[in-house]
Structures are given as structure tokens and as C-alpha cells.
């Protein structure tokens, strides 16, 4: 075997072990007995120790150097494999194995503590765990950044390679005034009534499964379970999603499912030749989020698809207090008071993300202490939304992210919205008659376009490059803002 073949074979085993580690996390959020948390923390730490040792093996440097000399310059796939392996190797070398294991252990414990604190509305219960996770992640960020580097930017690279916090803040800053103006204009037209009645849980799950299949989720290589916080996990031949149900709000289940199916379809669509390799997954969380958001919003909340969904919900649930398809479209897309990011409308969603982005940057920088986080959150929410947070589960305890150490993850949600805006403009350009399909409940041509333009490439191209190749232009916030204004301005009357 040549050096490249040896490296790829070694990487395949490492990727397989990484999938096993991911399955431990999936199990912890779905099926693990509550009393197993301490043991799971040790299992996760042990697995992280094995992975760290493999990812920092000095043979990787030798294989990389030898493989560079072996490969033809035009071998795009092989050179992309080397690029991604080298990036992971260099980052792993900067983080001591003991720190990587400590993070795995503490985040596994903190996740359970967060869930209990959230259920009990008890922020103080969570603070010691949060403080320890933050301390370890700051240590990791400093190690990754090196002397004079920015720890938050270094952590951000785990989720959005090539991005910086300053660059993202500038893009988000350009979005904010128009989002606030649009929100105020639409809300000034008055409240839109919601659904009425109770919605059977089993029927919600039946319809969510139907939606998952309609959007292309392959249940032969996946499954749908329930969790407190919906998520997608895995890649290749084993990609799992979760959703949640609320007897008074079926949209929580249905649109969470469509959203997570967007993530899952991305992973299922990656070129099988890239399976269990450095290219065999989504290239970044921003691109990943672009898929989940365009599935959920530009397709799933479109006027055409809402017309079809209205009929299916009437068949499932009977009369739920909405007169017709147009009224249903308004209900699905209504702007109202709300506290939960994952339930926010398209206009206000990014305001929820920017709040978290600013707070976590301050936490990592040491400008905000964990003990002051709840007050800072509540003050910022009051300023941004104009009303007070009533309880921690609707405020600082609503998201799982900080308990599992995902500092640097939140801005990728808004970046994903931005990317989705660009992709949607290109999609509509290429498929001008798409609404006829969506009105039949058939998004397959749209999801096929996304599979061909984005998903099949995995990590072959960088995040910005894959969006630019799909859209024919560099990503910007303009298409998203134009889409939102065109969709929501008529709601202002």
C-alpha cells in the first residue's frame, strides 16, 4: 500500500470509532437510564481518549507528507481528503489528551444536570457544571488559538471553518435593522389567532413520519425518536433524528421533524464513496443549517406547501379553528410573542441567535461570569423583544448547547439562514414552477436540487465555496432579507 492508501485506511477506522462515540451521545438523549449518567461520562471520556490518541498519531504526519508527493495535482478528491485530515490532525495536536477526556466527561455529566435544572426551573443547580465546562472550553480555545490568538475564533472553527466572529458579527449587524423594522411593521398589524383544540400525540407522530418521507428521509438508514431538544445524529448509513410533541401545538412536532430531516438528508446524500472518510459528512454547521432551514421554512412554510399541509391536518385532526388554506398559511407564519428559539418565526429567529452569540462570546472572553448569565440574558431579551422572560426554561436554560460545550455553535444558525436565502433564490431561478409540486405535498424536485448542488459533495469543498458553486455568487445577507420582506410585508396590511 502507498502512503495515501494507508492513511485513508487508518482514517476510516478513526471515523468509524467517531460514529460509535456519536451513538453514545444519541443514546444519552433518547434512551439511556437516568441513573447511568456517571458511567456514561466515563465511557465518553474513555472513547475520547482513544480517538485523541488516533487523531494525534505521529504516523499521520508521515503519511501526509508522503501522500502529498504521491498524488497528482489534479486529484481533487484525494487532495481534499488530505486537507481535511491535516486540519483535524493539527487541531488535535494542540489539545492535550487529558483535556479532551475531561471535556468529554464533564459535558456528559453537565447534560444530565442541565436537563434536571431545566425541569426544576433552577439555574443555580446548573451553574457549577456550566462553570466547569466553560473553564475547560476556554482552556481548549486558548490552546487552539495559540499566543495572541482569539479563543472564541478558535472554537468557532469546530463548527464553521474559515469564519471569524468579527466577520459574522458584521453580517449579522447588517441583518438586524431590517429584521427589527419588518418585525415591528408586521406585529403592528395585530395578532394572528393560533390553532385551537388538542392534537393527539400518536397522530402528530404519524404525520411527522409522513413529512419525513416526503422530504426524502430514508428510514432504512435512519429512525425517528423523541427528545427534549430535537437533533440529528450520525452520517452515511446510520443517520438518526429526534422530534418532540406538544398536545396543544402540533407545529412543534411537524416543523421540528422537517428541520431535522434537512440535516439528516444532507448526511444521507453525501457521495457513498466518501463514507467513513474525512469528506463523508457535512462541511460545516452553517451549511448544515442551510439545509434544515430551507427544508423547514422556504419549502415547508411556503404558501403552496401550507395549502397541502392544511388538508392533511384536517384529515388527521378534524376542525382546529382555521377557516381555510390562506388563514392556515398566516397561522404557520405568524409573528408573535415567544421565548423559545426553536419555535420562533423566520423574522425573529435570528434575534434569538444574536442574543446567544453575544453572550457566549462574552463568557469565553471572561467578560461575563456564569453567575451573571441569567440576569444578562433576561436584560438582553427585554431590550430585544420588549417583554420579560417568565422562567428559566423559557430563557437561559432552554438550550442544551452550553451544557455540552458547544461554544461557537450558535452563530452557525444565523449563518445557515443566510446561506439558505442564497440557495433558495438560486433554487427558484432553476425551478420556477416549483409551487405546483409543493401544492401536491411533493418537495422532491427541490430536495433533489439541493442534493445535487450541495449535499452530495460532503466536505469536498469549503463552506463558502460549496454555497458559491451552488448559487453562482458569493454568499450575502441580501437574498434572505429580500425573501423575508417579500413574504412578510403583506402581513402588515
SSE layout and pairing:
Elements: H1 3-30, H2 37-55, H3 59-70, H4 76-94, H5 97-120, H6 123-145, H7 151-156, H8 165-187, H9 201-214, E1 224-226, E2 232-235, E3 238-243, H10 250-269, H11 285-299, H12 303-317, H13 325-332, H14 346-365, H15 373-385, H16 411-430, H17 434-438, H18 444-453, H19 463-471, H20 478-488
Parallel strand pairs: 1-3
Antiparallel strand pairs: 2-3
Enzyme class: hydrolase
Function: Broad specificity carboxypetidase that releases amino acids sequentially from the C-terminus, including neutral, aromatic, polar and basic residues.
Catalytic activity: Release of a C-terminal amino acid with broad specificity, except for -Pro
Structural class: mainly alpha
- How many DSSP-defined strands? 3
Oligomer: single chain
Radius of gyration: 22 Å
Query: Strand sequence of the main sheet, in spatial order?
Result: 1-3-2
Uncertain stretches of 5 or more adjacent residues:
none
Alpha carbon gap, first and last residue: 69 Å
Major β-sheet annotation: 3 strands, mixed
Give me the CATH fold name of the largest domain. Answer: Neurolysin, domain 3
Amino acid at each position: 500500500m502507498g502512503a495515501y492508501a494507508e492513511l485513508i485506511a487508518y482514517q476510516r477506522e478513526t471515523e468509524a470509532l467517531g460514529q460509535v462515540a456519536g451513538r453514545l451521545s444519541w443514546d444519552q438523549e433518547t434512551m439511556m437510564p437516568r441513573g447511568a449518567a456517571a458511567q456514561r461520562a466515563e465511557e465518553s471520556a474513555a472513547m475520547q481518549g482513544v480517538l485523541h490518541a488516533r487523531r494525534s498519531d505521529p504516523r499521520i504526519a508521515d503519511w501526509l507528507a508522503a501522500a502529498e508527493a504521491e498524488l497528482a495535482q489534479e486529484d481533487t478528491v484525494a487532495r481534499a481528503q488530505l486537507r481535511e485530515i491535516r486540519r483535524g490532525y493539527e487541531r488535535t495536536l494542540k489539545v492535550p489528551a487529558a483535556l479532551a477526556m475531561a471535556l468529554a466527561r464533564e459535558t456528559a455529566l453537565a447534560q444530565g444536570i442541565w436537563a434536571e435544572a431545566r425541569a426544576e426551573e433552577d439555574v443555580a443547580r446548573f451553574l457549577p457544571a456550566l462553570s466547569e465546562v466553560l473553564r475547560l472550553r476556554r482552556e481548549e480555545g486558548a490552546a487552539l488559538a495559540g499566543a495572541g490568538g482569539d479563543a472564541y475564533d478558535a472554537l468557532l472553527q469546530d463548527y464553521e471553518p474559515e469564519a471569524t466572529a468579527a466577520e459574522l458579527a458584521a453580517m449579522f449587524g447588517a441583518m438586524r435593522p431590517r429584521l427589527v423594522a419588518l418585525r415591528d411593521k408586521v406585529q403592528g398589524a395585530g395578532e394572528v389567532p393560533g390553532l385551537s383544540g388538542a392534537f393527539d400525540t400518536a397522530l402528530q407522530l404519524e404525520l411527522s413520519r409522513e413529512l419525513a418521507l416526503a422530504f426524502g428521509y430514508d428510514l432504512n438508514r435512519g429512525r425517528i425518536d423523541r427528545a427534549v431538544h430535537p437533533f440529528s445524529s450520525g452520517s452515511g448509513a446510520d443517520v438518526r433524528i429526534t422530534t418532540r410533541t406538544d398536545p396543544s401545538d402540533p407545529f412543534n412536532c411537524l416543523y421540528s421533524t422537517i428541520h431535522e430531516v434537512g440535516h439528516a438528508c444532507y448526511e444521507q446524500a453525501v457521495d457513498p464513496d466518501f463514507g467513513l472518510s474525512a469528506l463523508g459528512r457535512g462541511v460545516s454547521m452553517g451549511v448544515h443549517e442551510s439545509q434544515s432551514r430551507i427544508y423547514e421554512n422556504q419549502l415547508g412554510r411556503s404558501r403552496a406547501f401550507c395549502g397541502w399541509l392544511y388538508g392533511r391536518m384536517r384529515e388527521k385532526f378534524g376542525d382546529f379553528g382555521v377557516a381555510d388554506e390562506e388563514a392556515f398559511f398566516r397561522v404557520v407564519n405568524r409573528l408573535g410573542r415567544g421565548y423559545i428559539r426553536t419555535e420562533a418565526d423566520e423574522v425573529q429567529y435570528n434575534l434569538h441567535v444574536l442574543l446567544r452569540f453575544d453572550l457566549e462570546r462574552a463568557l469565553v472572553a471572561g467578560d461575563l461570569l456564569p453567575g451573571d448569565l441569567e440576569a444578562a440574558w433576561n436584560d438582553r431579551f427585554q431590550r430585544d423583544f420588549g417583554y420579560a422572560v417568565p422562567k428559566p426554561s423559557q430563557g437561559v436554560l432552554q438550550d442544551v448547547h452550553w451544557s455540552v460545550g458547544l461554544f461557537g455553535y450558535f452563530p452557525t444558525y444565523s449563518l445557515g439562514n443566510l446561506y439558505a436565502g442564497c440557495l433558495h433564490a438560486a433554487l427558484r431561478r432553476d425551478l420556477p414552477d416549483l409551487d405546483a409540486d409543493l401544492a401536491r405535498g411533493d418537495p422532491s424536485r427541490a430536495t433533489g436540487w439541493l442534493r445535487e448542488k450541495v449535499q452530495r459533495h460532503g466536505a469536498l469543498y469549503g463552506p463558502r465555496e460549496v454555497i458559491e458553486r451552488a448559487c453562482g455568487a458569493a454568499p450575502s445577507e441580501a437574498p434572505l432579507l429580500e425573501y423575508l420582506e417579500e413574504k412578510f410585508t403583506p402581513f402588515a396590511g
